[in-house]
TrEMBL record:
InterPro entries: Snail/Krueppel_Znf, Znf_C2H2_sf, Znf_C2H2_type. Its main location: nucleus. Keywords: DNA-binding, Metal-binding, Nucleus, Repeat, Zinc, Zinc-finger. Pfam families: zf-C2H2. GO terms for cellular component: nucleus. One of its GO terms (biological process) is epithelial tube morphogenesis. Residues 217-235 have a biased composition (Low complexity). It comes from Medioppia subpectinata. It is found in: Nucleus. The keyword Protein biosynthesis does not apply. This is C2H2-type domain-containing protein. SMART domains: ZnF_C2H2.
Amino acid sequence: MIKGKPFDLSIKSHSHRQLNIGLKNERTKTIQEYPNLYATSQYQSLQYLHSLTSAKCLSPQNYSPNGDLSKPALIPLEAINSSLRLSPSSSPHHISRHLQSTAPFMTFGFGNCANFGYNENKNVLTSPSLYYQNRHLDYPISPPQTPILRSDRLVPNNYSSSTLETSPRHHSRHAVVSPVHSEYRPQYLSSNWSEHLPLKTANGSLNISSPTPSLNGSDDSGRGSVHSRGSVVSSESHKMDKNGKSRKPVNSDASGTRYHCTDCNKSYSTFSGLSKHQEFHCSTQTKKAFSCKHCEKVYVSLGALKMHIRTHTLPCKCKLCGKAFSRPWLLQGHIRTHTGEKPFQCEFCSRAFADRSNLRAHLQTHSDVKKYSCKTCSKTFSRMSLLSKHEDGGCAGANHRVQ
DNA sequence: CTGGGGATGGGGCCC
DNA sequence: GGGGCCCCATCCCCA
């Protein structure tokens, strides 16, 4: 575990790739436009962890049903391991794997944006709520006033009847529709537990419906379809498959409807049965997951996996100093540190840079209005990190904002 | 302490 | 499918 690197509690396999499709370079925008799902994900995950551990968290108020998610929660790994009956020394990755199988709704993430962090020194998981909320939301996430999720979306075998409408883009294939089948499932998760987890913002109750029509259905390329197979249904008569196509029942008659798996031809009497089959049993689906043998990550394509494996094998070595990199262009950038080459020239001053990103950051210093602005005092900053420091350091407006 | 530069990592997109 | 490139993010360091 690399110190300071985020530890991912979400499944990368489907959700990560899918949720980033069509949102190129707009991770921040993603959070801004999907705060409801983000908040829901975070709150559920925190609640679930809390229920698992009953741990004395370093900031326990964050777990209270009436708690404040505006601050990061720190969850001791030992407490989680203990509650999960894992080895006390189980790694975050081990915990992640366990949680992925027992609490699939925790995979409800936006790639990096929904990750928990891992503090190696304190050996705790840290929730990301403070960071992303303060930086990307216009309002603080406050917990629960009114229910926003139907419990049947989270209870085994009941999700078939869900009528909750959500944007297909928001859900990974492993998202909330997946059964929760942990023997350690907290009591309230067994029935209407999600009704304990409503969310409300400073502007009102959160809804899980799609906030941005422009991003819904605007993708006609086919690449952007992230329909969860069953999660995006709005009614029993309009099931969606993984490609977003309508999955209508086959052999329908007055007495019973049959749902047909287009991957292996098996049919089921209920949509939930079909969904469960596709989620956990259909071999043609499991074949689509490519696991990294070096770590826990899973990818939907071999190409993506190969690309990832390079981060382990580091095939690109610098002939001058021996330092290794995963990509050729990373090596190229590194070689510039030896040669002193700086091909990226600032058009406003004489400075030049070896890296385009650094030039971009530099260009911000020439701008009167910086890219990153404090939502409360309107002061602008050239970098997000500076804005972060500003807000963390006690912007009066920010303190007032989070209540 | 703040702001900025240097270096690097990683996923996605395009060709 | 792979290489190259883009963009975002982050850490470290220094003035």
